[in-house]
Amino acid sequence: MLSSLAEILARHGQADQATRLADQAETADRTITDPADRAWVLSALAGTLARRGQSDRATRLAHEAERVARTITDPTPMPRTT
Hints:
Layout: H1 2-11, H2 15-28, H3 35-51, H4 55-69
Helix pairs in contact: 1-2, 1-3, 3-4
């Protein structure tokens, strides 16, 4: 997942590359049609951005993740890994 890779790169001092990957992840999330998957990706990306100090963007994505999560009609939990 791009947001996980962005987090790892940022932790290792590669902030510019991490930001580019976060941008790509944010763009790619729009192609995900399953609301549970999309909400998970958005929340992971929001967490990554928050840890990188991009609080406005992280907040916006967290709100979007919540909005998407509210559209889930089948709440069966799916195993996730990060």
